[in-house]
User: Fold these one by one.
Assistant:
Number 1:
Amino acid sequence: MLAKGRVQILRTGTSSTMQAEQLMREFLRMSALDSEWDWSKAAVIARQWSLLHPVLAFCERNGIPAQRADQDPPQFWRLRETQMFVGWLDEQGMRPVSRASVMDFIKTQSSGPWWDLLTEAVENYGLECGEGPLPAAHLKEWIAEWGREIRRRQRGIMLLTAHRVKGLEFDHVAVLDGGWEDRGRNEDLDAARRLYYVSMTRARKTLTLAEMGKPNPLVARLEGLESVF
């Protein structure tokens, strides 16, 4: 069921694994049709963390960048690759280094996501500071500041619970089924409905509501999905 092409109810299998599989395959289908699709602008929201584990496993198997909202990203400055890069810069001292010489050093290292991230940093440094040679110490200071900013950046599809989603927005949102009938400590009878509604309204472009096995009563109570936006 689609409403203006932006809201979809996705009826999945009866297990959390089947739900994760069908949901992520739907996201893959949508990403293939959208030339501007960006995994860092997508999110999967669940009532419980356990329902997100199969989603993360699917992402890892299929090379989809993903991150959990309950886990801080590694500190960029403490990465082994960053420390190797900083060590090379220290060896240069106050001698000017060009962007080309820095990129040559990176190219001699093993490939991997963190070297790709350092390549991105050097490219941004060139855009901000120009292509001319500058002291290596200047680049080192710039990299340290850039690393603090990168920790706050979403780098893949975000996996989070409804309790953590307030105040956030994403282009593409999927809300998993399961556990919405449970009530946490100090939650009133209407807490699930409010959390579900907040989760739905985090979507800017597309919203996918999963139903696992049988109709979700929270979805059934919605009057006109087009009103979500």
Note: Residues 16-33 form the longest helix (18 residues).
Number 2:
Amino acid sequence: MFTIWFMGLPSSGKSTLAKQVENELNKQEYNIENLDGDGLRQKLHPELGFSKEDRRINNKRTVYISKLLNKNGIPTMVAQITPFRESQSQAREIIGSESEFVLVYVKCDIEECKKRDPKGLYQKAEEGKIENFTGVNHPFQEPLNPDIVVDSEGLSTEEGVDHVMARLDEMGILQEHLDEEYSFSLSRDEEPEIRERLEDLGYLDE
């Protein structure tokens, strides 16, 4: 089982990329649960603000939701800013203890993010109207060892999806899921019977 965690600056394109990767995996019959950061905040913990501690709590709660879903056979997709390396490492440590954890850094220059910002939040933060806005008046720490880096400034969304899917394939993440889905075990009594049938069919001929 696996969790693919997309992180990056506001308006870097992480949610868009995550959704498109989800669509691609759905085509391959993966039933993904998409845990979008904004949606989780609004529905599960709207009381949290954007201080360092609140962000830490928000990230940790999402980590445990992902772990629980993975434990029950549901792969997850997460799109959250995840600005602190502590939270990035914590997600890998907690989820990766039982499932595959893939950290995708959606990299984009902050000036380009400002241009893409549909709500003008960067400008409001620069004007002092928004506090604790990542990249302006709140820190953002680039991940030290991301599993996948997508340059969303240099690549189109389609190219970014292709890059993520290719890397997942190289890492064996998708094949491991298929192995889990189709794995089965035989008892001592069943094994001779199955072997005999395979020999009769010619599959075990030397």
Note: The chain has a mean pLDDT of 89.
Number 3:
Amino acid sequence: METLLPGQGVISSWRSTDDPEHAWSALRAAIVAGRPTAVAVDNFHVPFRPAYGDVHSNHLILVYGFDDERDVAFVLDATPPRYKGPLACRHLRNARRSDNPTEGDRDLFFARSAIAHRQLDDDPGDLRLDVD
């Protein structure tokens, strides 16, 4: 475990799994416990990213909620173009399980690192973030 925010008491560690159901359960449990969670995604599968459907690349977004009736997750992406709002759960699942493949010569810089359902588990101590 490492300190994410030195002096703030936030402890974090990366979780990774090959089991998509375990990854999904762990993410949902963190959200239900009130802990917004950073997850690794492949931009190729994220509709609000400029690389959607074009270039495979690692990226991080914050998941802060779910609406099961609409089958969406609520996410925050601080990297331009910034986005805050719903993301269809099917897109989130695809983006989290991507092998992030290299396709031809064009995306060698961005690809070749499996996403592997990585998420940043944390113990925020007394720190609370307002994502609303």
Note: The mean pLDDT is 80.
Number 4:
Amino acid sequence: MRNTFLLLIALLIALPQGVKAQRFEGVEFFGGYSYLQNNLGSTYSPFFLAPTAFGSNFALNGWQASITEKAADWIGLTQEFGGYYGTKNLAGYDNRFSTFSILSGPRFYYQGFKGVTPFVHALFGYEQTAIELGGQGLKATGSSYAMAFGGGLDAGPRRGLAMRVFQFDYYRPQLFGNSQNNWRLSVGLVYRIGGPRH
């Protein structure tokens, strides 16, 4: 009976250590360039302009940064920030656009390949867009929910510095009361702290 009790105690002590050894508990930082393709043709423009005044497609250039806390080597919670900027000529005037977004959600990784790590995610949050109409001194600001569904591919070690070869997302905000079907493409550097080395 005593030996059984000691064996049970030893198993209870060893079990958490074994579980802990399987946990990733790492943090991943990403920063880089991002390209956003807007479908502004589906958006009603402010200041009583025509619904398609800005055209069906409009490109914005900017940046993207994120922090992912990984509960295991295959899943993490991502907090993402993005800023995009550009101009669109309308009636001879350059109209300035600026967009800022904050998104959060789960990210899932596949660790079956050596040297590369594909991932997918579903992110939800907030977007704010400001439009300055050139030559008119008018400015409109709209804010709404936003969501992004997509994934990407990282190349490099699972700890330390790696490269995000690409991240592609279907991005859907709701600007001035109308949903958009946009997409975005991002590249940059990833730095990982904690987790396995290989």
Note: The chain has one helix and nine strands.
